[in-house]
Structures
1.
Amino acid sequence: MDYRIFRAINQFAGRYRLLDMMVIIFSQKVRYLFLFILIFMWFRDNSHKKITLYAIISAGVSMVLNKIIKLFYFKPRPFLNLGTHLLSPFPSKKNSSFPSKHTALAFAAATSVMFYKRFLGSMMYLSAILTGLSRIWMGQHYPLDILASSLLGSITSIVVKMTGWLWNPIIDRIIQAYHDYCSRKNHQGKSSN
């Protein structure tokens, strides 16, 4: 079933140049969109700074889990099978198909934001889904790898939120350190005038 769904999506890769370019750009560049959103949120108020830091923590934990899973589990990439349409950039043959780092990180950030900002989080969630689909289209992951990676990122964000008591002191210190830094810079700027 997994392979049939993969083939149903991947069969279109390489047929439509413009669509392939859009899929590649989306797959490779959505992280910059997420980064832009988080930076924009950081420069609003303290509640937005907290959301940004929760998203960063969730993505960081997802990244660590991704690395740990890849140390102990290897699943060959679909492009190693004959008949797979592969779009560049080409990953290493030694890189496991599960989990998908792109997908896990996108879902971790999107889920974190969705807890607090429904509309923005929904837009990020849609982008995360499209990121996962783009990885299948490009011939780099199987659908179950994408589904499991999306769950990994989402569940990581849920656990980070549920353990807020652990993260809140760290988050508050980071925000306070940022405000102290800004105050010092403003004070230095005024004293030099």
2.
Amino acid sequence: MRTDRVAAGVAAAFVIGAAAPVTAQDFCGGHSAGGQWIGGSEARSDVAAATSHMEQMALILMGNQYVALFTVSAPSDVRLEAQGRGAGDPVIDLYDESGSILLSDDDSGGNGSSRAETTLQPGRYCLAVRSYDGSPMTGFVRIGRLEHEALTPGSDSPPAPTDSEDPIPGADPMPGGAIGEICDIATVTTFLGDGQALDSLLAEGVTETASPEEVPFWGFTLAAPAAVSITAENPDADPVITLYDQSGNWLAENDDWDGLNARIDMTMPLQPGSYCIGVNALRDTAQPITIRLSAYDPLAAQIALYDRGEAAPPLDGSYPVTDLGLLSARLRSDIQSTDERATWLSFDVPEAGIVLIEAVTNGQGDPMLRLFDDFGREIGYNDDNGQSLDSRLIAQVQRGTYLVAVRQLGQGQQVLTRLLFERYVPAQP
């Protein structure tokens, strides 16, 4: 009976997939793909039922956008806001469930922030946030009703004070230091390598450990141009790192690069001079965080993407991929999946149709699934299937070879994971 219910669900998905690829969250004209529920799940993202505003931290990479997903169960007056950190200048676009754009805003929140207030009818919505000039940006996105606390002052309000000793009342500390505080090299008292130029040490790397309460800013100096990687490790602290030049100009920021650890890769060489790393923790600022500065290694960075399941490895044998062979109808495979490195499997599809993949741990783990074609294009992604931490992914596929990555999201987990692969083809007239 369970198989019949799954088959019926896949058949319905195939009808939808005739017009567009089917994903776990396919609405707003495709803008929902890769989006995040603003309340953590669809059930907790209903603005009409929320007792307070809902907020997420958004990391927007070069030329990309962040998409917050939410629902409205009853007609509601809603406020939508995005506030960038440092010189970040966010732009917001609101899409309804069909993909029609309802509104856009750039600076109505004041001080470069975005803000819009509108009445929304019941349905699902997508709030897309991008950087005005396409540069990387970190900021906050807040969605709530008009009676909820606002994130931004609004374009008609006076600018908020920026003195770090007089923070905005009720605001939370921002990554990289106190509110309004940035890292000017003149204020740094602790340097990696005791202040010497680190060029000769980058190959092996320079490592120091301290809590953000002890050392909120680490300085370092380069005598020659160098591409560098900066990591911050301790998932119990959930570190955030921000890189500034010697004048306090924001260069880059990262929160969750690998699990809750953070990493910044400066692939373009930094010029000679002094730099500052701001360190903060979203969980516990008293926890020690290990900071490591090393030379950027493009090959190691590529392999790290494979290890995290974020990019498909080549099928030339240079990276371990288990070949499952031809997916005729139904296939089962058991693996030990971990959070340290994704397990990669490949399979062949003989003709166009629908593929369903499930990762089941029966509550023992939190598996993630990512599906790619043999060219390396991401076809589908799923983390939590409904109210379960297990994953289920449905995708429309053509004839060819596909790769799937399986990885646990919990820290230090190694879990027996049962994988189910099923293929469905359209009914013949």
3.
Amino acid sequence: MNFMKEEFIKKMSFSDEVKKRFIRLSRGQRKVAQLVIENPHVVATHIASEVGKIIGVSESTVIRFCYAMDLSGYSELQERIRKDLSETEKVATKEPIYAGKKHEYLFSEVMNGDVASILNTIQYVDADSFQKATLYLHKANDIYVLGFRQCAPTASYLTSILENLGKKVTQIKFNVEDILKQMNKMDKDSLLFVIAYDSVLEDVLTIAKIAKNKNVKLIAITNSTISPLRDYAEINFVVGAQKQFAFEGNTAANSITHALIEGMMILNRNDYRKCLKCDTLLHYDFNLLEKQSAATK
């Protein structure tokens, strides 16, 4: 492991640790985890029994959550959360990097933020899920890509590369008519690839539910380990870092998408390379025709 990655992991917040273990927790413990992630001040200022009443679980469930997180008990949980909150307040008092019109090191701070986002994403990638996703992409007869608003750039990036590799792929447009049209075409041999961050989840959950009822395979990229899209997706990749705007997760989303494409190509590299070569030649022929046409005018 390189030095940069080691340093980043050392700085992982307790909230990040909870997200990483979220899927292993029981249903009741997940309620405690969600409160820790979304409203840490409540846990930091209330005793275990009160926290249990707030979220509708027993005090013993709250304590079992602590043990599941390798803590000695509720007091240590509060200590970890208070430490996180203290660090957050320190960060909040710093001057934002975009505050001034001129910033000598703006490019390095932004790009280091992108690196941190990608490193954080790596932690949540399960190797078996990654391999399964590449196989789905390789075998799918029809691939549908869904990504609205700030997720659209990654959706377009994925669609473009898959098309260049000879895959039959459709990017679903953000209008009711196209959504219904594409949903009607999907079947058990189709693959729906969804890129959806928290702010657009309401737009895609219904689509994901319909796809699941039609036995469509579903791969998702979200920016939260507790995204409700997890209930419908067979494979879910979590991207980005804490305290990022949703669109800032696109760098990490593009990176995991690139990795998936590379994994898919390994399964039949010769054929995929032939498709890329044909695509390049086709563009060359079109450019040549345009130049000849322009010369005759």
